[in-house]
Specification:
Chain lengths: ~120, ~150
C-alpha cells in the first residue's frame, strides 16, 4: 500500500507539472523551447527558496523527472559548492551537479546522429 | 504546387483541426504521470544497485534520456509526442528528444557546423539559462551566508 501511494504521488505531481505546461502551450504564445527554459529557471528558483526540496521528498521521481528537477539539481549543486568552497562554488556547482545528465544526453545524441538517418516528417 | 516537406508541414499544421485543450491536458497528465512514475521506479532501482540518492537520480535521468534518444532515432518518439504534447516534453525525455532530433536532422550539414552546432538548438538555451540562474543564486546565497 505504501508502495502504491509512493507511485501515485509521483504520478500526480509529475502529471500536474505536465498539465501546467500543456495549458501554457495551448493558451499562451510560449513554444516548447520557451517552456523548457522557463521550467529550468523555475526549478532553480524553487530550489533556491527551499520549496522544491519538499516537493522531491513528497513525490520523488515525480519531482526529479520533469525539467524543473534539472533546475533544482543546479541550485542544489550551487548551494553545496558555495558551502564547501565559498564564492568560487557559484561558478562550479551548477555544471558539476548536472554534468552526468548533460554529458549523457549530448554524447548519446551524437551517437544517434551517427547511427540513425533523418526521416521525412509525416 | 511544388513545395518542399517543411512548407507543406507548416501549411498542414495551420489547417489542421486543433484538438481541444481538455483532451490535450488529459493526455499530458497521463503520459507525464507515467513517465515520472517510471523515473521514480528507476531511481529506486539504481539505489538498489548501490548508488547514493544523487547518483541514483542522475542515472534514472540518464536511463530515460537513453530511451528517449533511442525512440527518437527509430522515429517512434514523434508519433507518441503528437498525442502526449507536454506529457513527453516536460520530463527529461523532451530535452533528450530535442537534442537527438536536431542532431539527426542536421547530419547532412556536416558534423561541425551541422550536428555540432545544431545539437544545441534547444539544449543550448536550457543549459545557458539554467546555469546562469544558478550563478545568480550562488552569488546571492554567498552574500547571505557572509552577512
Amino acid at each position: 500500500m505504501d508502495m502504491f501511494l509512493e507511485y501515485l504521488k509521483a504520478f500526480i505531481v509529475g502529471g500536474l507539472l505536465c498539465v501546467i505546461a500543456q495549458i501554457l502551450i495551448d493558451k499562451t504564445k510560449l513554444n516548447p523551447a520557451r517552456i523548457l527554459v522557463s521550467y529550468v529557471v523555475a526549478g532553480v528558483f524553487l530550489g533556491a527558496i527551499g520549496a522544491y526540496d519538499k516537493l522531491v521528498d513528497f513525490a520523488g521521481g515525480g519531482a526529479t523527472t520533469p525539467l524543473t528537477g534539472f533546475g533544482y539539481t543546479i541550485s542544489k549543486g550551487v548551494r553545496n559548492a558555495v558551502d564547501a568552497e565559498g564564492l568560487i562554488g557559484a561558478l562550479k556547482g551548477g555544471v558539476t551537479a548536472t554534468a552526468g545528465g548533460i554529458t549523457a544526453a549530448l554524447f548519446l545524441g551524437l551517437l544517434a546522429s551517427l547511427i540513425f538517418k533523418s526521416k521525412p516528417k509525416k | 504546387m511544388n513545395i518542399d516537406n517543411k512548407t507543406y508541414k507548416k501549411y498542414a499544421d495551420a489547417r489542421a483541426k486543433k484538438s481541444p485543450i481538455w483532451k490535450n491536458c488529459i493526455w499530458a497528465f497521463c503520459s507525464g504521470g507515467i513517465i515520472c512514475s517510471i523515473g521514480h521506479f528507476l531511481r529506486g532501482m539504481w539505489m538498489r544497485f548501490g548508488l547514493n540518492g544523487d547518483n541514483a537520480g542522475m542515472m534514472a535521468s540518464v536511463t530515460l534520456i537513453f530511451a528517449a534518444i533511442l525512440l527518437t532515432g527509430i522515429g517512434v518518439f514523434d508519433n507518441i509526442a503528437k498525442h502526449t504534447g507536454a506529457g513527453t516534453l516536460v520530463p527529461i525525455t523532451g530535452f533528450a528528444n530535442a537534442i537527438a532530433s536536431s542532431a539527426i536532422d542536421t547530419r547532412s550539414e556536416g558534423y561541425v557546423l551541422g550536428v555540432g552546432a545544431k545539437i544545441f538548438t534547444i539544449a543550448g538555451p536550457v543549459i545557458l539559462y539554467g546555469i546562469s540562474a544558478g550563478v545568480v543564486y550562488g552569488l546571492i546565497y554567498f552574500a547571505i551566508t557572509v552577512i
